[in-house]
Amino acid sequence: MKVSAFLIFGAPGSGKGTVGAKLSSAVGIKHLSTGDIFRGLSPASESGKLFSNYAGAGKLVPDEVTIQIFSRYVNGLIDTNKFDPEKSSFLLDGIPRTVAQAELIKSVVDVKHVFVLDIPDYSIIVERLLKRAKIEGRKDDADENVIRARLNEYETKTAAVLGAYDSSIITRINGAQDHDEVFLDTLSAYVKAKQNK
Ligand code: AMP
Question: Candidates 18, 19, 38, 152: which one to mutate for ligand 1, based on the most atoms within 8 Å of Cβ?
């Protein structure tokens, strides 16, 4: 059985996590961030070590491993009654991040709508991430070279993912606005997407 999902999409630092958490608690869909799943892996485990090597360099984790960890996590939620695919949807944050991932999840994830947080000015992103590093202590936010590598991965591998979806299910939102405005625009796009279903 396929799980239904909304995608929150955008460059690192575009606010996916913040708006994702707000939208999911407002409308009752399950926010799932692959970055959070990866950060929850034991640093001593093989996958934890792999993650730390890639993320530390600002690189994406290879597709096969990513899909394997993601699928295992989703199945775990379903098996332990934490997510009922017949009643609820996911708000996926950080996946798919390559065209190959979009292809690999197609058979199990039915994408209903994509909310894209646009921030064309990368200086805003760098500033935000450096600020977040001080609050959350994420190493990959603290080093400007790693941030640039992540933005490069986004441009060269992730941006093309949007081509995998019909433009009728994509809404672009100005991610440079104040957090509340970004949330309002995303909520409004979500309501419209549900109405057009
Ligand atoms: P994020 O919290 O979304 O910024 O992700 C942090 C890091 O986790 C990324 O820089 C990647 O190394 C890794 N990551 C998260 N999601 C994915 C994904 N879908 N594919 C590959 N790597 C990912």
Answer: 38
Nearest CA to ligand 1 atom 2: 35
Q: Would you say the CB of residue 125 lies under 6 angstroms from ligand 1?
A: no
Domain count, the chain: 1
Q: What is the value of pTM for the model shown?
A: 0.97
> Which residues are paired to 62 by β-bridges?
none
Tokens encoding 131: 């600020």
Q: Which residues pair with 114 in a beta bridge?
A: 7, 170
pLDDT in tens, 54-99: 999 999 999 999 999 999 999 999 999 999 999 999 999 999 999 9
| Domain limits for position 137 | 3-195
Amino acid at 96: P
